[in-house]
Structures are given as structure tokens and as C-alpha cells.
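Consider a concrete sample entry:
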Amino acid sequence: MAKNGKAKLHPTKHPLNANLRGSMVELLQKHLGTAIDITYQTKQAHWNVKGMNFIAVHKLFDELHETTEDYVDNIAERLTALGGQAHGTVQASSENTVLDPYPLDLVKSEDHLKRLADSYAKWSSELIKGIEEASEAGDDLTEDLLTEVGRGIDESLYFLESHFQSA
């Protein structure tokens, strides 16, 4: 970020104007940080889960981790296509994420499932806001990307919550 809080952009022939690209880069930095955070929250759960249905939940967390890694790459590449500089380190992600820190002492599968569901739900809510922001700004491609990520996050939330929902 530049000193004025606006994203510094690399020269590009991208057709969107610089102000719009700068605001979308800022929006995407937040979602990149969140994507990296949720990727490793999910891996933290994968590594440390214990209890009933261990193998099924262990494998689910690994699948969710792989899915969110794709979101990281897609968001970072859109951000850089707009002329931005992706801030994808763990330190940068911790500054940009919208998620609460993941507890390091969780063990039981139900606790991990519920805590991850909280994170996925929170990001889903932020994605909806981001979709609206990109739409209002007229950046159809960023809107489409965030919509695609949002669909996946909502599906993952369904997978997580289905473990503890009942009729």
C-alpha cells in the first residue's frame, strides 16, 4: 500500500481505470488474507482433530484445505492482473484477514467443525459485501470471481454444519 492508503499499482494496459483497479486491489487484498487464513485454519483442524468419525472429518478438512488453496491462487492472480502486488505472506494475511484467530487448543471433531463453520460463515458474509462492492464499481470480473468463491465457501459451510444439524 502507498502512504496515502491506496494500493500502489504496477503499470498495465488493463482497461479498467487506475482508481477502480486500486479499489479492487484493496478489496482483493482483504479476501486474499482471509483465504490464506481460512486455508490454514482448516489445516490446523486437519492436523489436530481427534474423536468420533476421525478419519471422515480428517479427510474433509484436508479436502476443504485444498479447495481454499485454489481460492488463494485465483484471488492473488486477479489482484496482480489489475496491477496490484499480492500480499500473500502469513504476516500480511494476519493483517488483512476478516477472521478471528483460530484457537490452537481445539481437539474434538465437533469443536473444530463448529469453529470452522463460524469462520466460513463470516467469510461468506464478507464475500457478499465484496460482490456488492465490485458490482457497484462496475468490475464484473472481480464480482464473478468473488461470486465463484462465495458459492464454494457456502458449499463448504454446508459440509461443516451438516455434522451437527439435526431434524
